[in-house]
């Protein structure tokens, strides 16, 4: 217990459980440091937390406080009534089915975002019998995943074509956007979350030297209520796929792993949305930036399914 009086151990080492199964574990209480208590309770709570960015405060000030958390699951268990603790380490096992509390909202997967977060926590409270003994509490977060979809996966490839002919040349003093053409492909915009995002990029023509080419994963979070919605895009991660002035007509591989916690299967509900995009960002030595966004959809697929 590492010197702690109260601790929570989950049965899964990676703290990951699937919706529909039971989250289980053991509560450990060191009775050598606490002789009595006034009741031991366990609370399981799953919540969607939403907030608006500060730049939307003015436009949405009227309903800013109306975006309330959404309770997905809530359970309370009495593990032990008031009494004395044995002069050793007390072990209290628990098991709670992971089923939604309300039919209106399913159990969404764990997700840590900027303006939308989905979290599942277990809290244990040991009530003290007197003011001097005090209360004890311990909280642990576990990760929830939905069962993978057992479907035949069909990739949805997309061709990449970014060229100067598709935009109007803009003059900034003596600087003019150079002539360029970038091609390639994305292997699939329908992306199993446990598999890498992949493809290739080819710089066929570039009228200026390239400083770097980056691949950015973007989260697009929409949240609100009947009074209005706010939509914000923020960066999750940035991966440099090339540095310097790359060879022309040379395939540059695209390969990215979706980070745990900060991604989840794409969600679209009446109260909020969690969507994702990939941004190809080409920075030139003359400080021009060429960027193109590609919406993607994340799904959880049975690992037995193959491409």
Automatic annotation (TrEMBL):
A biological process from GO: intracellular protein transport
Gene3D superfamilies attached to this UniProt entry: 2.60.40.640
Family matches, as SUPFAM superfamilies: E set domains
Family as reported in the entry's similarity comment: Belongs to the VPS26 family.
Listed name of the protein: Uncharacterized protein
Source species: Fonticula alba (Slime mold)
Lineage: Eukaryota, Rotosphaerida, Fonticulaceae, Fonticula
């Amino acid at each position: 217990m590492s010197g702690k009086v109260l601790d929570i151990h989950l049965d899964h080492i990676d703290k990951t459980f699937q919706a529909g199964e039971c989250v289980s574990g053991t509560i450990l209480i060191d009775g050598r440091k606490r002789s009595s208590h006034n009741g031991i309770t366990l609370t399981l709570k799953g919540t969607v937390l939403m907030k608006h960015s500060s730049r939307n405060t003015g436009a949405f000030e009227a309903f800013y406080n109306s975006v309330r958390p959404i309770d997905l699951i809530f359970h309370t268990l009495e593990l032990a009534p008031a009494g004395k603790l044995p002069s050793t380490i007390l072990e209290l096992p628990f098991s709670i089915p992971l089923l939604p509390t309300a039919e209106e909202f399913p159990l969404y997967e764990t997700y840590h975002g900027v303006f939308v977060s989905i979290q599942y926590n277990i809290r244990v409270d040991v009530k003290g019998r007197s003011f001097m003994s005090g209360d004890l509490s311990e909280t642990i977060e576990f990760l929830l995943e939905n069962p993978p979809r057992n479907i035949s996966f069909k990739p949805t490839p997309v061709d990449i074509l970014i060229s100067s002919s598709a935009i109007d040349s803009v003059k900034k003093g003596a600087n003019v956007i150079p002539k360029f053409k970038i091609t390639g492909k994305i292997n699939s915009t329908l992306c199993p979350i446990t598999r890498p995002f992949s493809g290739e990029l080819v710089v066929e023509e570039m009228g200026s030297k390239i400083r770097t080419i980056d691949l950015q994963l973007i989260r697009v979070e929409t949240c609100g209520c009947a009074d209005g919605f706010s939509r914000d895009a923020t960066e999750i991660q940035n991966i440099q796929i090339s540095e310097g002035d790359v060879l022309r007509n040379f395939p540059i591989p695209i390969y990215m792993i979706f980070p745990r916690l900060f991604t989840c299967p794409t969600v679209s509900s009446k109260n909020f949305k969690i969507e994702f995009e990939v941004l190809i960002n080409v920075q030139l030595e003359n400080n021009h930036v060429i960027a193109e966004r590609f919406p993607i959809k994340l799904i959880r697929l049975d690992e037995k399914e193959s491409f």
